[in-house]
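Work Package 4 report. The design task specified in the project plan requires that, given a folded chain encoded as C-alpha cells, an amino acid be chosen for each position. We show below one input record used in the internal validation round.
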C-alpha cells in the first residue's frame, strides 16, 4: 500500500470511530431528555393532585356545607379524579418507555421501581406494626374457653394495652403523614390507606390466628383462645370495613381511589 492509501484508511477508521462515538453520545443524550421529560410530567401531575387536595380540605371539613359549597366540592372532586388519572397515566407512559428500552433501565429502576408509597418507610411501617399489635391484643380480653390464661395481659389490662398500641400507631402514622405530605407528596387518602390498608390489617389478620395456634399447640390443646381470636378478627375486619365503606376512603377526595395500598 502506498502512503496515500494508508492515510486514506487511517482517516476512514478515525471517521468511523468518531461517528460511533457521536451515535452513542446522541443516544445517551436522547435517553437523558426522555428521562427528564418523564420526571417533569410525574412531578407536575403529583403536585396537581396535592394542590387540588389542599383546596378541597376546607370545604370537606365543614359538617354542613351549603348548596354552593356542595357544588364546589363536586367540581373539585372531578378535578381531583382527573389529576389522579393524569398521574397514573404519567407512570404508565414511563413504564412504556422503559419496556421500549428508550431509557437507561438501571437508572430508571433506581428512581422509580420503589418510588411510590415508600416515602420515609421506617415510621410508616413502625406505625402499622403498632396498629397490628394493638388489634392482636384484643384477643386476650376474653379468657380462654379451656385451660389457664398464658399471659398476664388479660381482661381489662389487655383492652387498655390494645388501645395504647393503637394510639401509638395512629400518632406515628399521623406524624409520618404530616412530615412527608409536601415532599412526597402525600394526600389524606394515603394516610387512611396506610392505616386500614394491606399491611396494618393483613399483619393483624395473620398474627391473630398464628398466636392462637401457637398457644393452643404449646399448651397441648388445653388452652384455647378461640373466642378471643374471633373477637379480635371481628374488630379488625369491622374497622377496615368502616374506613373503606363508610369512613374517609368512601368520601371525597378519596372515593375508593387506588392510592397507597
Amino acid at each position: 500500500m502506498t502512503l496515500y492509501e494508508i492515510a486514506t484508511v487511517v482517516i476512514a477508521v478515525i471517521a468511523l470511530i468518531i461517528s460511533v462515538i457521536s451515535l452513542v453520545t446522541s443516544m445517551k443524550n436522547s435517553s437523558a431528555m426522555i428521562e427528564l421529560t418523564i420526571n417533569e410530567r410525574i412531578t407536575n401531575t403529583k403536585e396537581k393532585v396535592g394542590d387540588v387536595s389542599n383546596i378541597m380540605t376546607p370545604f370537606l371539613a365543614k359538617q354542613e356545607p351549603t348548596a354552593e359549597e356542595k357544588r364546589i366540592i363536586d367540581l373539585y372532586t372531578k378535578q381531583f379524579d382527573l389529576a389522579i388519572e393524569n398521574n397514573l397515566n404519567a407512570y404508565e407512559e414511563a413504564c412504556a418507555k422503559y419496556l421500549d428500552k428508550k431509557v437507561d433501565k438501571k437508572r430508571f429502576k433506581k428512581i422509580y421501581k420503589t418510588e411510590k408509597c415508600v416515602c420515609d418507610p421506617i415510621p410508616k411501617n413502625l406505625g402499622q406494626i403498632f396498629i397490628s399489635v394493638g388489634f392482636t391484643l384484643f384477643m386476650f380480653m376474653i379468657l380462654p374457653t379451656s385451660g389457664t390464661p398464658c399471659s398476664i395481659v388479660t381482661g381489662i389490662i389487655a383492652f387498655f394495652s390494645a388501645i395504647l398500641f393503637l394510639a401509638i400507631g395512629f400518632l406515628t402514622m399521623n406524624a409520618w403523614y404530616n412530615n412527608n405530605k409536601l415532599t412526597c407528596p402525600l394526600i389524606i387518602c394515603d394516610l387512611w390507606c396506610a392505616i386500614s390498608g394491606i399491611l396494618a390489617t393483613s399483619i393483624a389478620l395473620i398474627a391473630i390466628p398464628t398466636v392462637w395456634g401457637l398457644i393452643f399447640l404449646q399448651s397441648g390443646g388445653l388452652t384455647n383462645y378461640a373466642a378471643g381470636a374471633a373477637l379480635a378478627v371481628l374488630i379488625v375486619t369491622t374497622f377496615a370495613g368502616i374506613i373503606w365503606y363508610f369512613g374517609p376512603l368512601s368520601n371525597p377526595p378519596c372515593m375508593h381511589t387506588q392510592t397507597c395500598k
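The chain is about 75% helix and 0% strand. Validation will be extended to a larger panel in the next phase.
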